[in-house]
Structure formats: structure tokens, C-alpha cells
């Protein structure tokens, strides 16, 4: 399941991010690529210990925890600290799958990457190319969102970022271990959750809403691990 989360960060926060990232010290992104991905990856990133990455990453984490759609879709158990990347001058990241298990300095536990996320920080008209192409059962999905918007996609998917042939594409990206490992189960829970929320608005007080809410929680109890 691909989930588009609009306006994760507001315009003022976004403007601050863009100002700070325009003056950031970008390093070669190949430093953190796996041994296969290293051939396909041509971009820049902030170093993991860059204080700017930590400061902006914390703001992203804060925004995620206050976003109902993100919480309902991801059912997050652990979120890795956001990283920041920049593609320009033909920069690209060829088809790859993200590592299944990751760790981050300072985090006590390792994180299984059930979900991958990209928060777009450049607007689509600022660059040519730079589409996030995600392979799924229905074919390739091409994602290029307005600045401030986030896409969530299954960590299991093969994906790429196409070459940026004009301008620059700046983004934050990170991984999430979900309470619910399987994408299909998360998709069902999200569908049920959204339907219950809509019913609660349309027919407030209807006793069947409590029964459906019970079904939601009892499925979550069956399918979650912590
Ligand atoms: O920049 C993106 O949208 C995704 C980056 C990516 O796939 C990765 O770093 O593994
Ligand atoms: Fe990736």
C-alpha cells in the first residue's frame, strides 16, 4: 500500500528547513550504500552525525507523532532518525531494496524496515526527473509530491529515484518498524479505521460503531507484535 500524507509540515517549518538545507554540508551518499547499491547510488546526504540532521529530524519525528493519518497507516513501533538527501546534476539512485534491518547510533534496538518514507522538501517544478518509482503488483508507481508532503510505501518494494536532470531534489527519508509486519494487514486496518471514523461523523452515537471499533482492536491485538 502506498499512502500519501499531505502537509506533514507547515509552510513556516518548511521554509526553515529549506533555508537551513541550502547552507548545509552535503557529503557523498555512497558512504552509506550497501555493497550492491553503491553502484546505483549517486547523490548527496547529510552525515548521520551532522547536528542539522538531528535537529531537523527531530522536528519531522514530532510532526509524525501528531499526524493521525501517519499513525493510522504506519502503526509505528520504532522510527529510525530521518536522514536527508539531495539529487542534482544527474543524481540518481537505481532500483534497489532497502536493508531489512537497520540500526542507528544511540538507538538501543535494531529496527525492521517494514515501511519506507520520503518527505519531499523541493517542489516538483524546481527539478526535472527525480521521481520515486516504486514497483508494486499493479506496475510502477511514480511519485513526485509537493514540498512538505510524505509518501509511505512498503519496505519490501523495489524502488528507484530517476536522474535529476535540472535543478535539485531535496528530501528527508527514513524507515519504520510497524506494530503490524504485513502490509496487507496494515492496509485492512487502515481501511477499517477510516470507515469507523467516517461513520462516527455521519451517524454519531450509533452502537454498531462500538462493535466495529472492537473488531479493529481485536484484529490489532492478533496481528501486532511489540
Ligand atoms: O530519496 C528518496 O525518495 C528515496 C531514497 C532511497 O530510496 C534510499 O535512500 O534508500
Ligand atoms: Fe531506498
CATH class of the largest domain: Mainly Beta
CATH architecture of the largest domain: Sandwich
Summed over residues and divided by their number, the pLDDT gives a mean of 96
| CATH topology value of the largest domain | Jelly Rolls
- Assembly context of the chains: single chain
Q: Which series of helices and strands comes N to C?
A: EHEEEHHEEEEEEEEEEEEHH
The dominant shape is: globular
CATH superfamily of the largest domain: q2cbj1_9rhob like domain
Point out poorly predicted stretches. Answer: none
Strand content: 25-35%
Helix content: 25-40%
Largest sheet: 9 strands, antiparallel
Distance between the termini: 22 Å
User: Number of helical segments?
Assistant: 5
Radius of gyration: 18 Å
Q: Give the cofactors and ligands.
A: 2-oxoglutaric acid, fe (ii) ion
The number of distinct structural domains comes to 2
Alpha-beta content class: alpha+beta
Binding site for Fe cation: 96, 98, 159
Protein name: Fe2OG dioxygenase domain-containing protein
Binding site for 2-oxoglutarate: 169
Keywords: Dioxygenase, Iron, Metal-binding, Oxidoreductase, Vitamin C
Amino acid at each position: 500500500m502506498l499512502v500519501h500524507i499531505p502537509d506533514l509540515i507547515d509552510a513556516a517549518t518548511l521554509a526553515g528547513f529549506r533555508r537551513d538545507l541550502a547552507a548545509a554540508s552535503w557529503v557523498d551518499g555512497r558512504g552509506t550504500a550497501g555493497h550492491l547499491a553503491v553502484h546505483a547510488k549517486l547523490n548527496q546526504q547529510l552525515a548521520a552525525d551532522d547536528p542539522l540532521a538531528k535537529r531537523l529530524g527531530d522536528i519531522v519525528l514530532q510532526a509524525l507523532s501528531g499526524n493521525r493519518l501517519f499513525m493510522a497507516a504506519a502503526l509505528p513501533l520504532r522510527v529510525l532518525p530521518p536522514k536527508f538527501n539531495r539529487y542534482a546534476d544527474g543524481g540518481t539512485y537505481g532500483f534497489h531494496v532497502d536493508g531489512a534491518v537497520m540500526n542507528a547510533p544511540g538507538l538501543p534496538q535494531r529496527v525492521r524496515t517494514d515501511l519506507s518514507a520520503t518527505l519531499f522538501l523541493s517542489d516538483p517544478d524546481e527539478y526535472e526527473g527525480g521521481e520515486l518509482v516504486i514497483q508494486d503488483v499493479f506496475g510502477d508507481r511514480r511519485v513526485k509530491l509537493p514540498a512538505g508532503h510524505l509518501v509511505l510505501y512498503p519496505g519490501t518494494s523495489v524502488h528507484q529515484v530517476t536522474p535529476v536532470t535540472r535543478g535539485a531534489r531535496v528530501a528527508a527519508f527514513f524507515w519504520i518498524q510497524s506494530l503490524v509486519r504485513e502490509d496487507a494487514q496494515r492496509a485492512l486496518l487502515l481501511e477499517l479505521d477510516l470507515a469507523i471514523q467516517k461513520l462516527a461523523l455521519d451517524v454519531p452515537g450509533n452502537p454498531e460503531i462500538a462493535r466495529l471499533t472492537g473488531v479493529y482492536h481485536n484484529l490489532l491485538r492478533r496481528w501486532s507484535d511489540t
